[in-house]
Amino acid sequence: MFCRVLVQLIALSLWSLPFGPLPALAEPLELIIDADYSKNPASSQSIELGVRTALEEVDYMLGDLPVVVVPKDHRGNLKRSARTFQEFSENPSGLAVIGGLHSPPYLAEQDFINSNGLLTLLTWSAAGPITRSKAGMENWFFRLSVDDSRSGGFLVDAAVSEGHCSKIGLLLLDTTWGQANRDPLTRALEAWSMTPAFIEFIPSTIGDARASALAESIARTSPDCLIMLANWDSGAVVINALHHVLPEVRIFSHWGIMGGGFADLVNDEVRTAHQLSVLQTCGLARERAGSAILAAALERAQPNSPQLSAVAAPTGFVHGYDLTRLLIAAAKQAATTSAWQGDIASKRRAIKTALETLRTPVDGILKTYSAPFSAYTPNRPNAHEALGPSDLCLARFSKEGVLKDYN
Question: In terms of pTM, does the model score above 0.85?
Answer without folding.
Answer: yes
